[in-house]
Amino acid sequence: MFLDESGDHNLFKVDPQYPVFVFGGCIMDLEYHDTVVTDQLNKLKIEFFGTKDVIIHTADIVRRRGVFRILTAESTRKKFFDAINSFMEELNYRIVSCVVRKTEHLRKYRLAAYDPYMLALKVVVERFCYYLNWDPWS
Q1: Structural domain of 7
Q2: Would 122 be classed as within a structural domain?
Q3: DSSP 133
Q4: Could you tell me which residues are beta bridge partners of residue 22?
Q5: DSSP 70-116
Q6: pLDDT per residue as tens digits for the range 14-28
Q7: How far apart are CA 54 and CA 67, in angstroms?
Q8: 3-state class of 137 per DSSP?
């Protein structure tokens, strides 16, 4: 399972523009990742950026920073998103994730509120165990 997060897990300084913490995992066979997924992603990177040494990062894409400046042109942006969407639709994977609405979590649990990172990690690992049909609590 490959893990990533979005947002910060601070409960006491909540950004009103992004008041959530998201933690997720992408489950796939490691050999499949190392061969099929990596090869297809590298082809996509080379097609658009001329190199496979590009990190596909949402913040850079949205802000069109660095190599993603090419997405300023609407036609290129459409081709890129069509290619990314097709790539993702064709892959064999499962997603497990947890979203913590920080303000609501703090309001409901007050001083007993869990750190959103630890809460989300627990939920995602638990779901991964269910996916593996393994009960970590037995």
Answers
A1: 1-28+94-138
A2: yes
A3: T
A4: 6, 99
A5: GGGSHHHHHHHHHHHHHHHHHS--EEEEEEEEHHHHHHHHGGGPPPH
A6: 999 999 999 999 999
A7: 8
A8: coil
Cα(first)–Cα(last) distance of the chain, in Å? 22
What's the number of domains the chain is made of?
A: 1
pTM attached to this predicted model: 0.82
Residue for token pair 């069509």: 82
Is residue 119 domain-resident?
Answer: yes
pLDDT digits (tens, 9 = 90+) for 30-65: 999 999 999 999 999 999 999 999 999 988 999 999
| Number of CB atoms found within 10 A of residue 91's CB | 15
| Structure-token match 């090419």, residue found | 70
Cα separation, 20 vs 2, in Å, equals 20
Phi and psi (nearest 5°) for 98? -140, 130
Tokens 């703090």 -> residue: 106
Look up residue 73 and give its two tokens.
């042109």
Half-sphere exposure of 128 (CA within 13 A, CB side): 18
